[in-house]
Specification:
CATH superfamily of the domain at 165-303 in chain A: Butyryl-CoA Dehydrogenase, subunit A, domain 3
Helix content of chain A: 40-55%
Structural class of chain A: alpha+beta
Radius of gyration of chain A: 19 Å
Number of strands of chain A: 9
Strand order of the largest sheet of chain A: 1-3-4-7
Oligomer: heterodimer
Largest interface: A-B, 51 and 50 residues
Number of strands of chain B: 8
CATH class of the domain at 165-303 in chain A: Mainly Alpha
CATH architecture of the domain at 165-303 in chain A: Up-down Bundle
CATH class of the largest domain in chain B: Mainly Alpha
Order of helices and strands of chain B: HHHHHHEEEEEEEEHHHHHH
Shape of chain B: globular
Chain lengths: ~300, ~375
């Protein structure tokens, strides 16, 4: 048992932190008050520098890939990272990224699809991929702070992969848990910065115990989420992955409401980035059936089928 | 980062399990029903702890010169580490006097911390210790003191600087409970027989050599001890074990197929695992000799949450079991779930500390 990052992971995350400190990752209000900004330039630089390949390297592994997903998700710009860092190295073939993922042919718009070059489809028995040709995807207007899109799935040219769908589901649960925990952490830091400064009744909002206690609980739960997802990233057990995703999906809504509560009217504006995290969290908390589904999956893994 | 146990750790765990398998009596749940302060459990502990000591399982983490094996933190963190602080801060004479009995498992200590007007605000304690020549004369009152009626020794906090001395005036005394002037009264309570007490000190005279550390050092020592106590008992493990027993009971009744029940069990389990990993972070820091930061405050709050969720699960879906003799452990767990947010510093105090130290939020005016 050793719960700090190893030397290689520390170096990897330090370099990642330097890249994410770039002004490209900072918040700018999007054109026409759009709900998201895709960090295309930063995405390209992360790819050029091999950051999305960490999982395949022995000393970095899936723990570093999950930690990277958690870090990237904290930024107000959206960058497709979870599927690229945790699924792509295990597909057994090249898959041009960014990636989009659909499970069990779930209907509706798919996140990251408008920027994606590959769509991965996971069903009970098979994992298939299709490269997306230009013009095949229609962007869908949505509240979610992701590029959302649809595609005629039947018209795509699918190839079946020689990889167990159960394993991909576990990796995807870990990736989603990492992304959601990172989104919540990004929002927390933003709210903390605000309540440290914002003065009311002659003192900072963050000095009121009613505010402190709720933010402390939120911070404890986000840190617990991080530990649970990193453990799942190492073990890649179905039990750990379901637990990690179920836990963070369960806390996401309450934590998100708290953040808006303490940000007050400023959090309602599109000039402040809080909405970016809020609406990514809104989508992620319902992903793959949401907390109930993950909890039931965990119960079956731990205590057997009903 | 590595969440796996080493082979040595796993073997050590197995050794403890084998020991408990052979040494714990079949009626252990009955013995433990009324808690560690009850006559039944105390009588048992005084037999059992020396066996643990003989097997090298009581104080393996203590330094070798005091009878331990200097084993690493991962092997022993379940043990009461605040007593180890005696070895850290005590004089040689104190070590010779107290450690052999503690190391052999025959000692029962109580902690004279809380007072009627000094609970969460422990530093405002008013029990006075006045220096008179080579002695101190102690006057005051302690309350909520666990095991006081059975204890041979008291780890006592007292103020040496006058009524408004604050933290800098707090000193620690190791006081034999049979010293004249000490009166103990049990407080009937929810949490086990003989568990909490009032202790009155009237002109209690102790030699100056019974002071642990210097005058004014007490607060630092106690802060360290409380940081250990906050995560000293792996309550998430008790919660996990109770949850598994509750699920087994529901399965035996054919009631564990309902999705609502299964999801609630999973949520309670998730809270236990969250608490486990946050506690592990504290132990990990100790194992790597990293100075403690705020991990114990985060961990303790998570443990409280986990205890509540496990208890609520049982009370919601097995309400009848909380009055049956066949499920004594459920009832004991419920009683512990109430106290867990209060002992060793209220949960809200942990949140205050997280806010200020971890989140860097400003103090109130």
């Amino acid at each position: 048992m050793r719960l700090d990052y190893n030397e290689d992971q520390t170096t990897f995350l330090t370099f990642l932190g330097q890249m994410l400190a770039s002004s490209e990752a900072e918040f700018r209000a999007a054109e026409d008050w759009g709900r998201y900004e895709y960090g295309a330039a930063l995405d390209a630089r992360l790819e050029e520098n091999g950051f999305f390949d960490a999982a395949a390297e022995e000393e970095l592994g899936t723990v570093a890939a999950a930690a990277m997903t958690y870090e990237v998700a904290q930024k107000p710009v959206a960058i497709e990272c979870g599927a690229s860092s945790l699924l792509r190295p295990f597909l057994g073939r090249e898959a041009p990224r960014p990636l989009a993922v659909v499970l069990d042919d779930a209907p509706g718009a798919i996140r990251y699809l408008p920027v994606a070059r590959t769509l991965i489809s996971v069903s009970d028995k098979t994992v298939r991929v299709a490269e997306l040709t230009e013009g095949s995807v229609s962007e869908v207007e949505s509240l979610y702070a992701y590029p959302m899109g649809t595609v005629d799935r039947k018209a795509l040219s699918w190839s079946e992969l020689d990889v167990a769908s159960d394993r991909v589901r576990v990796l995807w649960r870990v990736a989603t848990a990492a992304e959601l925990a990172g989104v919540l952490k990004g929002a927390l830091e933003s709210v903390l910065a605000y309540v440290r400064e914002r003065q009311q009744f002659g003192r900072p909002l963050g000095s009121f115990q009613a505010v402190q206690h709720r933010l402390s609980i939120n911070a404890i739960e986000i840190e617990a989420s991080r530990m649970l997802l990193l453990k799942a990233a190492q073990s890649l057990s179905a039990e750990d992955a379901a637990l990690a995703l179920g836990y963070v999906q369960k806390i996401a809504s309450r934590v998100g409401y708290d953040f808006h509560q303490f940000m007050g009217a400023m959090g309602l504006t599109l000039e402040h980035p809080l909405h970016r995290w809020t609406y990514r969290a809104r989508l992620l908390r319902a992903d793959q059936g949401g907390s109930s589904s993950a909890s039931l999956a965990y119960a079956s893994e731990r205590w057997g089928a009903p | 980062m590595d969440f796996n146990w080493t082979h040595q750790d796993s073997a050590y765990r197995q050794r403890i399990r084998d020991f408990l398998q052979s040494e714990l009596p079949a009626n252990w749940a009955d013995i433990a029903r009324f808690g560690p302060g009850s006559e039944e459990q105390t009588e048992f502990s005084l037999q059992f702890c020396p066996k643990l000591a003989d097997a090298g399982l009581l104080i393996p983490h203590w330094p070798e010169q005091w009878g331990g094996a200097a084993r690493p933190p991962w092997e022993h963190f379940i043990l009461g580490e605040e007593m180890w602080r005696v070895g850290e801060f005590g004089s040689d004479e104190q070590k010779r006097q107290y450690i052999p009995e503690m190391a052999s498992g025959k000692a029962i200590w109580c902690q004279g911390f809380s007072e009627p007007n000094a609970g969460s605000d422990l530093a405002s304690l008013r029990t006075r210790a006045v220096r008179e020549g080579d002695n101190y004369v102690i006057n005051g009152q302690k309350i909520w003191t666990s095991y006081a009626a059975l204890a041979g020794q008291c780890f006592l906090l007292a103020q040496t600087d006058g009524p408004d001395g604050g933290r800098s005036g707090i000193a620690i005394f190791l006081v034999p409970m049979d010293t004249p002037g000490i009166e103990v009264r049990a407080i009937p309570s929810l949490i086990g027989h003989g568990d909490i007490h009032e202790v009155f000190f009237t002109d209690v005279c102790v030699p100056a050599s019974s002071r642990l550390g210097e005058e004014g050092e007490g607060w630092n020592i106690i802060s360290y001890a409380l940081a250990n106590e906050r995560v000293g008992i792996p309550r998430y493990e008790m919660g996990t074990a109770e949850l598994d027993r509750m699920v087994a009971e529901l399965k035996s009744r054919g009631s564990f197929s309902d999705s609502v029940v299964r999801a609630r069990a999973a949520e309670a389990a998730a809270a236990c695992e969250a608490a486990r990993l946050l506690v592990y972070r504290v132990v990990d820091g100790r194992a790597r000799n990293v100075p403690p930061a705020n991990e114990a405050n985060l961990a303790r709050y998570a443990v409280v949450t986990a205890e509540h969720l496990v208890t609520d699960f049982g009370m919601d879906f097995l309400p009848d079991s909380f009055s049956e003799r066949s499920h004594l452990s459920f009832l004991s767990h419920h009683e512990r779930a109430i106290v867990t947010g209060i002992a060793a510093g209220a949960a809200e105090i942990q949140l205050n500390l997280v806010a200020r130290r971890e989140l860097d939020l400003p103090r109130g005016s």
